[in-house]
């Protein structure tokens, strides 16, 4: 247990669980305990006057906003009268919970893209888990398409990782994650080609070849743009692609005994590099959850 004595060392966004609970009297969201979260860290808040212990995933650089069985505890109000000016309120994002484990971070590459963007921008955030197999009614009312990720922006719910990451880039321009225009779409077709190949039941339908064409093009691009898509710096294109490559690697290995060909050395190094980023490890779903997430096609 790590004792926190000052807000300035209070750096971890919270992650809480939201699902439609049959026990609830209303459709309003409730914040429930974070117990049993993988990688969770227990913080004690001495002299805070607030309910003792909060758990949060070790997900990044955000200010800790503790979540207890009794709800959100804003640490800024917790005995820090002489503290530095209050940090901005954490950005609220709603991301997928794991299939069959509604209290754990799930296998959504679009959700991870948003978390990665927040991590790389150093923006405090509060990630809430949505059980997509049991979506709360308030979530469907606010977001009729019912997909995650969703971000609460000025009181409004905004869906779609393209839109959310664009808003984050505009609101938090530094550090810029913009990918130069000519490289912004690199790897853009890999995910649909991967999904088509994964779902394919016919070994001769060309889906494997189509995926390979995209992977070779990506490898070729990376040959002259290392180590990331735009060169030295991680940019938005990497944060969109890395979670998709994570799914590709895990799902194709598990369901098709297939892996990225050894001769695509630039791509293999790239995958290794992006998946080794601390930010990636903090925001990734467990491998088993990725496998479980694709099981419905088999
Ligand atoms: N284009 C969307 C795709 C979002 C998406 O497909 N989310 C999936 C999870 S990865 C989802 O919410 N599925 C639940 C459902 O469709 O009910 C984005 O970029 O955010």
UniProtKB/TrEMBL annotation:
Any one GO molecular-function label of the UniProt entry: glutathione transferase activity
Residues of the GST N-terminal domain: 98-176
Keyword entries, A-Z: Detoxification, Oxidoreductase, Transferase
Keyword Disulfide bond: no
Gene Ontology biological process terms in this record: ascorbate glutathione cycle
Domain of life, per lineage: Eukaryota
Family the entry assigns: Belongs to the GST superfamily. DHAR family.
Pfam family, one: GST_N_2
Protein name (record): Dehydroascorbate reductase
Source species of the chain: Ceratodon purpureus (Fire moss)
Boundaries of every GST C-terminal domain copy: 154-298
The keyword Oxidoreductase is annotated on this UniProt entry: yes
Swiss-Prot/TrEMBL catalytic activity: RX + glutathione = an S-substituted glutathione + a halide anion + H(+); L-dehydroascorbate + 2 glutathione = glutathione disulfide + L-ascorbate
């Amino acid at each position: 247990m790590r004792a926190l004595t000052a807000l300035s060392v209070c750096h971890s966004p919270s992650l809480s669980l939201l699902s439609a609970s049959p026990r609830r009297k209303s459709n309003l969201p409730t914040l429930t305990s974070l117990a049993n979260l993988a990688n969770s860290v227990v913080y004690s808040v001495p002299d805070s006057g607030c309910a003792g212990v909060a758990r949060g995933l070790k997900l990044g650089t955000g200010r800790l906003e503790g979540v207890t069985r009794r709800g959100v505890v804003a640490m800024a109000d917790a005995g820090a009268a002489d503290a530095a000016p209050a940090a901005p309120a954490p950005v609220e994002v709603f991301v997928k919970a794991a299939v069959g484990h509604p209290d754990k971070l799930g296998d959504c590459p679009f959700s991870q893209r948003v978390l990665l963007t927040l991590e790389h921008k150093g923006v405090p955030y509060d990630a809430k888990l949505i059980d997509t197999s049991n979506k709360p009614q308030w979530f469907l009312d606010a977001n009729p398409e019912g997909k995650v990720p969703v971000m609460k922006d000025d009181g409004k719910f905004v869906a779609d990782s393209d839109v959310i990451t664009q808003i984050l880039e505009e609101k938090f321009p530094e550090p810029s994650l913009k990918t130069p225009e000519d490289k912004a779409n690199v790897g853009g077709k890999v995910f649909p080609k991967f999904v088509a190949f994964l779902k394919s039941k016919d070994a001769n339908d060309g889906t494997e070849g189509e995926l390979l064409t995209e992977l070779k093009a990506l490898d070729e691009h990376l040959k002259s743009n290392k180590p990331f898509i735009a060169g030295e710096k991680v940019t938005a294109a990497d944060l969109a692609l890395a979670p998709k490559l994570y799914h590709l690697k895990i799902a194709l290995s598990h369901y098709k005994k297939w892996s990225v060909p050894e001769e695509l050395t630039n791509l293999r190094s790239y995958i290794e590099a992006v998946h080794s980023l601390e930010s990636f490890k903090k925001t990734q779903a467990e491998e088993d959850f990725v496998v479980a997430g694709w099981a419905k096609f088999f």
